[in-house]
Amino acid sequence: MEKRMIKKIKRKDPKGLDYIINTYSSKVYFLVNKIIGFYGKEEVEECVSDVFYKVWESINEFDEKRGDFSKFIYMKTKYLALDYKRRLEKSKLHNNLEKDISNDISIEHIALDRESSEEIVKVINSFKEPDKTYFYLKYFMYYKIDDIATKYKTTRASVENRLYRCRLKIKEMLERRY
């Protein structure tokens, strides 16, 4: 049965993907949760989803002479979860830096100066999508980060990272000016 499903996956037949999700999802979820579970359920679910996508995309790397298909999936799971863990740790570091930056230069305080405001708007308008949209929604429309993430079907961490990079660009512009 498994060999038949592997062939289906290689032909990009969705039934093969359904089979591996139904067969391996609980073990994949368990492994991912062991590695990054303390970061939250949303991150675990996103990683599990990415594992199955990665297996789907890299199915041609599977060689049954080198081991079982389950080992192939579990190795993909392990390495992807470790990548997520590194990214999440980096994001945590960025959030701490963000607090430090906000203590140094308050965007709201500088925005009171009209010239600065015009320059800030130019910098914001130069942002690529979806950064510009996220920034406007957060700081001009007062959306919550979770609402932005839900609306654009992404993670909270992704929105936070993009907003952080936007604020850094504004800070750099302001530092050059002053």
TrEMBL record:
Gene3D superfamilies from the UniProt entry: 1.10.1740.10, Winged helix-like DNA-binding domain superfamily/Winged helix DNA-binding domain
Pfam families (alphabetical): Sigma70_r2
Keyword Metal-binding: no
One Gene Ontology biological process: DNA-templated transcription initiation
Keyword Isomerase appears in the UniProt entry: no
Cited InterPro entries: RNA_pol_sigma-70-like, RNA_pol_sigma-70_dom, RNA_pol_sigma70_r2, RNA_pol_sigma_r2, RNA_pol_sigma_r3/r4-like, WH-like_DNA-bd_sf
Alphabetical keyword list: DNA-binding, Sigma factor, Transcription, Transcription regulation
UniProt-listed SUPFAM superfamilies: Sigma2 domain of RNA polymerase sigma factors, Sigma3 and sigma4 domains of RNA polymerase sigma factors
GO molecular function, one term: DNA binding
Domain spans labelled RNA polymerase sigma-70 region: 21-88
Family named by the database record: Belongs to the sigma-70 factor family. ECF subfamily.
PANTHER family associated with the record: RNA POLYMERASE ECF-TYPE SIGMA FACTO (PTHR43133), RNA POLYMERASE SIGMA FACTOR HI_1459-RELATED (PTHR43133:SF8)
Protein name as it appears in the record: RNA polymerase sigma factor, region 2
